[in-house]
Sequence to fold (111 residues):
Amino acid sequence: MNSKRYIACCGAYCKTCKPFIEGHCRGCKLGFDTGEREINRAKCKIKLCCFKDKKFDTCADCSDFPCEILKIFYGKGRKRYEKSIVFVKEKGYSKFIKLANKWNDSCGKLG
Fold:
């Protein structure tokens, strides 16, 4: 399975996220990427901009990074996700996924 689909637009990594693993969350993009879930019903402004409107995998693919939506999101104590997106921009998805698969939550150590 393509691990890139487990990376949320904002930088969270759903594959190792406890609520996702425990079945309390369906993931940030999972289901939207296959049409099983309706993207127009999503409430996350980041997901709607990145995934629906711009058709990017994550915000790392956007030349407007960090946009105003992300600045507000990251400013609310979510800087760790911003670090993930910066890592993907600088080193690529494969290196990020290799590290992220070792995490115990939606974010972790990047090197």
